[in-house]
UniProtKB/TrEMBL annotation, chain A:
Keywords: Antiviral defense. CRISPR (clustered regularly interspaced short palindromic repeat) is an adaptive immune system that provides protection against mobile genetic elements (viruses, transposable elements and conjugative plasmids). CRISPR clusters contain spacers, sequences complementary to antecedent mobile elements, and target invading nucleic acids. CRISPR clusters are transcribed and processed into CRISPR RNA (crRNA). This is CRISPR-associated autoregulator DevR family. One of its GO terms (biological process) is defense response to virus. It comes from Fimbriiglobus ruber.
UniProtKB/TrEMBL annotation, chain B:
It comes from the Bacteria. It comes from Fimbriiglobus ruber. One of its GO terms (biological process) is defense response to virus. Keywords: Antiviral defense. InterPro entries: Cas5_Cmx5_DevS, CRISPR-assoc_prot_Cas5_N. This is CRISPR-associated fruiting body developmental protein S.
Amino acid sequence: MSLHVFANFVTPFGTAANNRAETEGNITTLQKLLWQGETHSTVSAEAIRFALRRRLGAAEKTNRVWDEALRSNVWQDHQFKGWASEKGVTFVDDDLLGYMIAEAAKEDGSDDGKGSATVRRAVLEITRAVSLTPWAGDVTFNAASPGATPSAQKKGSNPVPYGTEVHATRYQYGIALTPDRLRDKTRAAKAIDALCNLGTVAGNHGRFLFDFSPDAVVLRVTQDPAPRLLYCFDTTDDGKTVVSPKLLQRLAAEDLDPKELIVGVSDLECKLAADLKARQVPVYGVKKACEEAVKRITAELKIKG
Amino acid sequence: MLGVYVTVPVACFRKGMAREYLETEPLPPPATCYGFLLSFVGETDRRRHVGARVAPVLLNKPPTSVVLRTVWRVKKMPLGSPGNTRPDYQQLLTDVKLVVWLDSSAESGTEPTLEARVRAAFTHPSSVNRFGGLSLGESTHLVDEVSLLEGKKADSISGQVGRAFLLAPKGRLSLPVWVDHVGSAGTRYATGSLEEMTLPTPPSADRLPIIHHSP
C-alpha cells in the first residue's frame, strides 16, 4: 500500500501584488493565466516552496538558508553528501522538497559524453496558486520619493511615478505528499504544520503583506493516487466567502470518501462547513484540522511524531 | 485496450528543443503518458513495459497562457551562485482533459503487462506501492483526476469528439516515445497527426504510437 496525503488550501482575502511578471514601461505587472475563460493572477509553486523552506527552518535545520544580507541562498551541503549513506545527516528541506544537480552532456549525440544527475525527487509536491476570482485590471498609481530610486530618476529631484498591478482576491493551491518516502517520517507532520502556518509568499519588496496561512483547507489521507480535490474551492460573492460545489459533486458521485477527508475552516458557521457536515465530512478549525491530519498520518505510518 | 481518463488543471508539455521560450505541445507526448502510467502503478524501471502502445486524446481545447518563471541551470558551483538562474517565459495550458489509450499486446517484458497492472491499480489501489504526486510533465503540474474509461465515466464523455495523436507516416507532428534525459542520442520520436475521433470508441491498436528505445 502507499499512503498519499493531498490537500487544497485557500488563503484569506487580501490585496496581492505577489509574483511579478516582466515590468511593462513603469508598470510592475502580475503573473496571469487564463482560467475557466477568464484572466486570473497566479503565484508560482516555487514561491510557495521558498516560503515553506523558511517556515521549515523554524522546526529543523534546512540545507538552504536565505541570507537577507547577502540576498542569496547559503548552503550547508551543496553536494548532498548526507544522502550517500543510510545514517548520513540529511536536511528537512531536501527530504521534503527534493534536489537536483545536473551536469550537461559534454558531447551531445554520443553515449561517452553523457551528462549526469544527482536527483532526489520531491516527496512533497506543490501546485501553482491561482486566484479565486478573475483579475479586474486594478492598478495603483504610486510615486517613489525623491532619491528613493536613483536608478529610475535620471535627473533632478522629482518623485518617480510608477504603477503596480494589484489583485484583491484569495489564492488556492494544492499539494501531494507520500510520507513513506521520507528519510525521516516525522517530517511529514512538520510539512503539514508549516503549510497550515505559512506566512508571506512572494510579495512586492515588503510593501504588501499577503497572508498565505489557509483560511480553509481540505485534506485527504488515502491510498488513491489521484487527489480529486485540486482547485476545488470557488466563490459566488467575489471572494467574500468560499464554497466548493466541486467537492460536493465528487462526494455525491462517490469519487471521494468522506472518511478520507478532513476539512478546516476559519468560520465554523459558514456555508462550506454546513454543506460538508451534511455529507458526513468532519469539519474543524484550520489548526485543529491540521492536527487531525497529522494524527491520522502518524497512526497510519505507525511513527512516533 | 484500456482507456484512462485524466485531468490536469495546469500543465506544460514542453517541446524537447524549447530553450529560452518554453513552448508546450498541444497534448502530452506518448513518452510522458507512458511515464505517468508507470508512476501510477509504482514501476521505477522504465524499460519494464517497452513495446506498450500509448496514445493521448485531448478532449477539450485548453487555453494557452504565458508566465515568466525562474529556470535553473548549473553554470557555477555552489548551486546558490548568482548566474545559475534566469527568468524565461513558459507557456502553460489550463484545464487539460485527456483520455490515454493503452494497449499492451506488443509488449516484450515479463507478465503482468502494463495494461493489466493499470487495471489492477484501479480495482485495488491498496495493492500498489508507489510514491510521488502523479503528474504529467513537471512535478508541479499535478494530475487531479484519474479514472478508468468504463461504465459511468465512459457514458459521461460518450459522443464527445477528441483529438488523438495517432501514427501517420506523413503526419505533421513528431512526439517523443522515449526520452534520453542525459544526452539526447537515445531520444526516439513517433510521427503522427492529430485526428478527430468520437469517444469512447478506441482507435485501431496498430495506429497507437509504440514505446521503444535504442538498443
